[in-house]
């Protein structure tokens, strides 16, 4: 996790650290904020501490966490709503509204016991019916439908929730960080939640007040959080750079930009967003696993992360985040040009015969275009000559769907249970390279049902390393931007900028 305090150049727009993350097949498009912290202005004067702590808020947009817009509403939602589980900084599920969980492998059924003593902000108790209603809504929502596609049914049974699956998954809790709302209030402007704060309005203005009946106790770092109405990206940018609000979330390697200066701090959080090189495995040359393995040895992942993503990513050789306990570090190999040369020679690609290939990339993301150009240059060695074809988003998607590429630079948000079926399984919705392998399909199915998931993931990764249908490059990080010196002990996660709320310290002028 990176922490930096500096005067930085703000590049605004694409909001991103959220508990309401959309399930997208390739790249997330949306509204938000990007920050380029590579250019520091050390002469920027210190900014006085604020007299109150404030967040941006769109009073015209819904706050239902299942349907709310991406961005600032999601940040508010992490203070109003909670899930059965939440992902920690290693992307592992931890109990939240669920006190215990058990899995019946034969029946493919999870039984979740709710935490006792939890109430909604109106004082009514959390029930299994509320949880079942939220999860059943989520199963048909745009945001969560793909994530929850392995669920056949969700029902309440006294103070327990029973979830039946249509395929085995011994790590379903990793998918259940979905915010729960009180059944019957989902259509309200502000549905009722169980979180540490409640939204209050008075005199036409809104704020967050500490929930005095919160089951987590009285550990809120501040009793009141001001909300500043921001209905546009420009408004959010202005309010943040003028220090009217003290925290936003951001994708620092996103799509578009405009500049503004100020004295801020930022902190990164690891995500499940994978960037990788994909192969068209039906291509005459690229159908050979030895060729694909050789090409993979030519990628210096650390160089990609440091030079082209400014460290806002974690280099990865496998499609599971290196911060996760499942990542098989013992299978990693150190980048070596000599190993690249040897493998290319062994694969018959050092013969003097030129093979021309095209690497497809989305033109709207300058970071990815730069990475693609670097990779094309680095891999244009021995018999390979690789050119870059940068296309606008819709054309890029169409080319992927039609298989009009040799290689492509892709991005996808994986689920935190690390089910890779859609990415590399036969017929997977993200398997644009049409890779088909019954052995891998069996390994993926075994992983879903495995009690020892680490050993099973190691088998999957070892096989992927040998067959190489894709080449993982890195996992992106998302960032929390704050006014310098205002927040202490901030420890954001991929889905919650206020993770570890009990440790957070907010510094205000004269103590607020």
Rg computed from alpha carbons, rounded to a whole number of angstroms: 24 Å
CATH superfamily of the domain at 270-476: Dipeptide-binding Protein, Domain 3
**Uncertain segments:** 5-42
What is the general shape? globular
N/C terminus separation: 29 Å
CATH class type of the domain at 270-476: Alpha Beta
Largest beta-sheet details? 9 strands, mixed
Which percent range fits the helix content? 10-25%
CATH fold name of the domain at 270-476: Dipeptide-binding Protein, domain 3
Structural class: alpha+beta
What's the oligomerization state?
single chain
CATH architecture of the domain at 270-476: Roll
- How much strand? 25-35%
Number of helices: 11
How would you sum up this structure, described in words?
The protein has 512 residues and is of the alpha+beta class. The chain has a domain at 270-476: Dipeptide-binding Protein, domain 3 (Roll), CATH 3.10.105.10. 22% of the residues lie in helices and 27% in strands. The protein has eleven helices and 21 strands. It has helices at 72-80, 128-139, 233-241, 289-296, 301-308, 337-346, 366-379, 393-402, 421-424, 438-449, 453-467; strands spanning 3-14, 32-36, 54-57, 85-87, 93-95, 98-104, 109-114, 151-157, 160-165, 197-202, 205-210, 224-229, 247-250, 259-279, 313-315, 355-362, 384-391, 407-413, 470-483, 487-488, 505-506. Strands 1, 2, 13, 14, 15, 16, 17, 18 and 19 form a nine-stranded mixed beta sheet that branches. Strands 3-12-11-10 form a four-stranded mixed beta sheet, sandwiched between helices. The chain has a four-stranded antiparallel beta sheet with strand order 6-7-9-8, with helices on one face. α4 (289-296) runs antiparallel to α6 (337-346). The model is unreliable at 5-42 (pLDDT under 50).
């Amino acid at each position: 996790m990176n922490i930096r305090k500096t005067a930085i150049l703000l590049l605004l727009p694409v909001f991103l650290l959220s508990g309401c993350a959309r399930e997208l097949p390739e790249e997330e498009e949306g509204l938000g904020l990007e920050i380029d912290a590579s250019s520091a202005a050390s002469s920027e004067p210190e900014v006085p501490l604020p007299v109150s702590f404030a967040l941006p808020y769109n009073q015209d947009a819904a706050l239902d966490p299942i349907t709310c817009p991406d961005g600032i509403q999601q940040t508010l939602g992490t203070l109003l709503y909670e899930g059965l589980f939440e992902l920690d900084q290693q992307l592992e599920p931890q109990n939240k509204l669920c006190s215990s969980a058990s899995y019946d492998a034969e029946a493919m059924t999870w039984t979740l016991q709710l935490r006792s003593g939890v109430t909604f902000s109106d004082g009514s108790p959390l029930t299994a019916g509320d949880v079942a209603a939220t999860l059943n809504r989520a199963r048909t929502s745009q945001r969560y439908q793909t994530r929850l596609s392995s669920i056949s049914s969700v029902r309440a049974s006294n103070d327990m929730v029973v979830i039946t699956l249509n395929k085995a998954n011994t790590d379903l809790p990793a998918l259940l960080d979905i915010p729960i709302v009180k059944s019957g209030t989902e259509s309200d402007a502000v549905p009722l939640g169980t979180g540490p704060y409640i939204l209050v309005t008075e005199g036409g203005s809104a704020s967050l007040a500490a929930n005095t009946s919160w089951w987590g106790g009285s550990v809120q770092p501040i009793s009141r959080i001001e909300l500043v109405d921001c209905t546009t990206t420009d408004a959010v940018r202005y309010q943040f750079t003028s220090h009217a609000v003290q925290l936003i979330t951001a994708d620092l390697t996103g799509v578009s930009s405009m500049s503004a200066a100020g004295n801020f701090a930022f902190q990164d959080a690891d995500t499940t967003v994978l960037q990788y090189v994909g192969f068209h495995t039906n291509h005459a040359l690229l159908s050979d696993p030895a060729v694909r393995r050789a090409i993979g040895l030519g990628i210096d992942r650390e160089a990609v992360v440091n030079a082209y993503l400014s460290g806002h990513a974690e280099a990865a050789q496998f499609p599971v985040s290196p911060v996760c306990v499942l990542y098989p570090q013992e299978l990693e190999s150190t980048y070596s040009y000599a190993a690249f040369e040897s493998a290319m020679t062994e694969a018959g690609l050092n013969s003097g015969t030129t093979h021309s290939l095209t690497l497809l990339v989305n033109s709207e993301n300058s970071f990815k275009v730069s990475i693609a150009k670097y990779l094309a240059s680095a891999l244009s060695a021995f018999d390979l000559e690789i050119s870059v074809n940068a296309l606008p988003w819709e054309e890029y998607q169409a080319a992927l769907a039609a298989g009009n590429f040799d290689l492509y630079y892709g991005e996808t948000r994986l689920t935190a249970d690390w089910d890779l079926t859609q990415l590399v399984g036969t017929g997977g919705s993200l398997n644009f390279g049409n890779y088909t392998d019954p052995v891998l399909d069996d390994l993926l199915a075994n992983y879903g049902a495995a009690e020892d998931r680490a050993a099973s993931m190691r088998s999957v990764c070892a096989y992927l390393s040998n067959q190489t249908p894709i080449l993982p490059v890195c996992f992106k990080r998302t960032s929390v931007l704050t006014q310098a010196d205002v927040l202490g002990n901030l420890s954001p996660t991929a889905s919650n900028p206020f993770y570890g709320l009990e440790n957070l310290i907010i510094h205000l002028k004269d103590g607020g």
